């Protein structure tokens, strides 16, 4: 009995230690005091409603990743270089604020290698589609107008003559995140069999050109529109590499296009073993490169090589995020990271001190997690259109009642008595 009690105590102690470690790891990811804020940006012109001003702030940490989990106490407002206080209830986290409108194209690699198992043994294509389902679910829960198009791509080959070509028609299959048709489309894609070779750059260039059409009113609003300009983004999910012979030239063409359209953010997601893991698996003594692709000893099978370097370069050119993983669960987490990077904005509403019609002001925000150096945004200007805020409805109703009472006492009542007087005078006559 004593032995069992000792064993049980040891087990509990071990579990407690593991639980404590897990909680510490979670806290390190979510607590603002562990965050390292690098960039704070007021993402568009402040919204002016009487003397109430609303600003939206995007905050980034290491490697341009969105800084989530901050608190209202981590923010400080400076209006015309003077601090302005705001109430806790007037501050919203990215999960609470309504996200800005967005158009997102998910390019899904449909090459034959997506039929291969991932690091956990499940088919890559199944894991990828399940991850996209979770991505659409989170998008739907956040609300707003987030339009998503899921587009398989793959170049025809001797094993798959048809392939999955990209065109404006295949790209223009957007559904709002909450639309059941989006899930129906995913069901249809899940019924298909990946069978093609990988051509990364052509589908990506066509998607960029599609979103770069400035004549499309969905993507580009008029300059004087009161609505915010939609966020435009492409998520490239691939387990391969651009296998064309003129890869370097194709990449330079793609780079020029991406730089020219810097309002379109491209996030890249590699699905497979890293070059370092491939180097260990095939005993290369180094990280695998394109030169190691081939058959036989000391070579990496073509279907296993993922061009991590190029995927990272593509994302960097657009200010996007590059992630890499070998299992479906992490793929799903990475897709949510991309969503936070695209739509994750904090929101603050405050009252303009001493608001006057036509007065111009500048607002800045300072953001700092506890114990870290504050980061200040660039100032954004705005103009007050009216004298302060309008009176509350109850006050206006009271004032209206007072006016009617004054009219009654000053006009109707005297008129009534005057009428009575005239009537009495007429009776006397």
TrEMBL record:
Task: Please give the Gene3D superfamilies that the UniProt record associates with this protein.
Answer: von Willebrand factor, type A domain
Tell me which residues make up the VWFA domain.
103-321
PROSITE patterns, per database record: VWFA
UniProt source species: Tolypothrix tenuis PCC 7101
Domain of life of the source: Bacteria
* UniProt keyword annotation of Transmembrane helix present: yes
What sections of the protein cross the membrane?
A: 397-418
For this UniProt entry, which residues form the secretion signal? Answer: 1-35
List the protein's name.
Answer: VWFA domain-containing protein
**InterPro entries for this protein:** VWF_A (IPR002035), vWFA_dom_sf (IPR036465)
Instruction: Give the UniProt keywords, A-Z.
Output: Membrane, Signal, Transmembrane, Transmembrane helix
